[in-house]
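--- STAGE predict ---
source: upstream dedup step, 1 unique chain passed
mode: sequence only
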Amino acid sequence: MARSTFRTRALTFLFAGLLLPLGFSANRLIAAGPGQPQNGDVQSEVRPERGGTWRGRIDALVVDNFQNGTSRTRFFLHTSSETLELQGAETAALRSGDQVEVTGRLSGSKLAVSQLAASPAPAAAATNACSAIGQQKVAVILVSFPSKALLSSVTPALVSASFFGTGRTLNNFLLESSFGQTSVSGDVLGPYVLGADYFDEPLAVRDAAVAAAAPFTNLTQYSRIFVVAPQGQTGLDSGGMALLGCGPVSSPQGTLNVSSIWMGAESMAGQDGIVDIASHEMGHGFGLEHARYADYSGESLGPAGQAPAPWDGLHEYGDSYSSMGRQSAQWAAPQ
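--- STAGE serialize ---
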């Protein structure tokens, strides 16, 4: 066989959610929440560089670049007191929820890794994960920065129609892909102006968006949170990004167990484009990785475990028959 197409497998998640009355949403200027930088100064605290060892939980953030056909993964370490971004851990086989011990050097919020030991997420975490089956309650939060407004073309009406309306929508994509077992419903909240410019701080953008929406809705009813924000300023490359699976998110209403998904406003060109991005990133929220294509350049496949030749290639979005690849098609059977 000269070429082989393969797809990564899906994880099955379980979630017990609450369906509670929905509140009211409106435009509002929201100040940064407790512990967040004020007045747009996200670098106000200067911390000296230091070495040490840190322990905590990992979040794996998949940053998609649909325009260039590439992606990258950012790893965030949540300790008991702070959130740090790991540098030099790109090749580590880490997944969201893993418990790690990291030795390295901290500069600001960036932790350069010299040694890393990881253990899988505790088995108990699986019982708190979001189910991929049934109705998915979605909150789509539209946000602007003080120095960067959301595109005026990305309206609540357009986003609502793309997610929950008729025709080609995220809801209908999921219904078709799951043979009627999975659907989405929910609300578009905002737009809100956040209290600071969280440049290239996607987790801070999400937390501020959640805090902005909290006065107007009961956040505990949602299992999937989408944040629509200015693209480059938030840390998106092109299209969207998502944390793999579900995880804890702090909110004024307590800790939420949700998927965290970001969509770049500049890539949301009409309803079809929104559905393409939303379905791909929703797949990451279910725990799916990319549907890749392995190119062996005409050579015969060798035994399992054989190292690839230098001319072999792995194309990140290479599967032409999956929205986790490069087309707006259903997910592969393993997914």
